[in-house]
Amino acid sequence: MKWIKSISSRWSSVMRKRRFSMHGVEAQSEEWHILISPAGVFAAITALVFLIFAVVLLLVAYTPIVEFLPGYKSSAARSRESLMESIMRLDSIERRMNDMLVYNDNISLIMNGKTPAVRTTIAADSVHRAKNLVLPSLEDSLLRVQMEGDGEYGLHTTVRTNSSMRDNMEMVVPVDGIITSHFNLREGIYGIRMASAAMAQIMAIADGVVLTSVWTPDNSNIVEIQHPNGLLSVYKNLSQVLVHKGQFVKGGEVIGYTAETPVSDGGNNFELELWNGGKAVDPEGYIVF
Q: I need a labelling partner for 72 at 20 to 30 A (CA). Which of 49, 161, 178, 202 fits?
């Protein structure tokens, strides 16, 4: 059993104590000594490590000492940062909602033949920014004068009857398709809906100036064109728009395209609305489909 004797001898060597002493230089006499073994040294180091770990754990758990360490964020600081981020997100969402309300109010004013008004959204924001109004551009000023005056495209131009408009304006069918829904004020349908091929060309019904070209969640892209004699045409559910605000278009000019998928496959019907003097009118009374 040589391996048993070898293990026994090694264990005895590890457990055997050694004499560690200190001698004086001059007297050459022993001044201090201690008996230690390799196993004792290992046990002492292990106990010291566990003691340091326990002390550090108690300090971290029951004292605020970690807050003084560089780069460390306490739970309170993290909660504070998360709260500030949430407040900024809510503030941004509130501003977007107020912008949408202003947009809807202005559209309502335009439909009623009135002048849109600028409204201040929020008196105090969490983000400090300049509150100066943006100065209107030259193109915006010219368009406003044209719309608010008594000229050809003025909003306050005297409203004429359907027959006189048909005589003075040769209106174009906006898209090749079939009418699927007719004008009905009682049911809240302010225009007509037409089924057409996918990506069919949509044309302006008559000469006019693009009043609005925006995208909305409910009706995709919308284009509004102001025509002479106080007539306003609204084109809804456009997949693409080729015109911009303030642009002059001629009757029959392509202003956009219908949905990318046919109506039978889930695409949206193209919608056309006509407003005369701020009131919705039946497009079939103006256009021969």
A: 49
| Other beta carbons less than 10 A from residue 240's beta carbon | 14
Q: What is the value of pTM for the model shown?
A: 0.44
Beta strands in 2-156 (DSSP E): 18-23, 30-36
Order of strands, sheet of 254-257, starting from the edge strand that comes earlier in the sequence: 201-203, 254-257, 240-241
Structure tokens given for 115: 């002048």
Mean pLDDT of successive 10-residue segments in the chain (289 residues)? 72 77 74 80 91 88 73 68 86 86 80 64 46 59 67 52 54 91 90 91 94 86 91 93 93 91 69 91 89
Task: Say if strands 254-257 and 201-203 run parallel, antiparallel, or are unpaired.
Answer: antiparallel
What fold is seen in the domain 162-285? Glucose Permease (Domain IIA) (2.70.70)
Q: What are phi and psi of 118, to 5 degrees?
A: -85, 130
CA 283 to CA 277: how far, in whole Å? 14
Q: Which tokens sit at 146?
A: 């044209």
CA distances (Å), origin 174, targets 5, 215, 229, 273: 106, 19, 19, 11
